[in-house]
Design a protein that fits this description.
By secondary structure, the protein is mainly alpha-helical. It has six helices and three strands.
């Protein structure tokens, strides 16, 4: 029962729903999530921790950066995420997706000025 409460609590917050919706398209670095949601890094990390504790997302470290993706190893959690995200309208995420696109574009421009290749990795690499 405690496990179910963790899962539903994790999905009952607007910020966490937005994070999961952003991760629907694939893995993101914490800096992408911070930029998209226009929140402080500690706030994003708190919400990511709640989602991770509920088993809804997984993380991996790349250098000093953390990358997150939806945990698809559990059928119940995956189906719950899919059915929940199906109900989240795209208009709910419009501004967040615009900020994410602008952040990625500006990051690419900064890396180009530094003579670096833009890669799938993150934040100044």
């Amino acid at each position: 029962m405690e496990e179910l409460l963790l899962i539903y609590k994790a999905l009952s917050d607007e910020t966490r729903l937005k994070i999961v919706k952003l991760l629907e398209k694939g893995e993101l670095c914490v800096c992408d999530i911070v930029a998209a949601l226009h929140v402080a890094q500690p706030k994003a990390s708190f919400h990511l921790g709640v989602l991770k504790e509920a088993g809804l997302i997984k993380d991996r470290r790349e250098g000093k950066w953390m990358h997150y993706r939806i945990h698809d190893g559990d059928v119940f959690r995956r189906m719950l995420i899919l059915t929940t995200l199906e109900k989240v309208p795209e208009s709910f995420m419009l501004e967040d997706k615009k900020r994410l696109a602008a952040f990625r574009k500006s990051r690419g421009a900064k890396l180009a000025l530094q003579g670096s290749e833009v890669t799938a990795s993150c934040c100044g690499k």
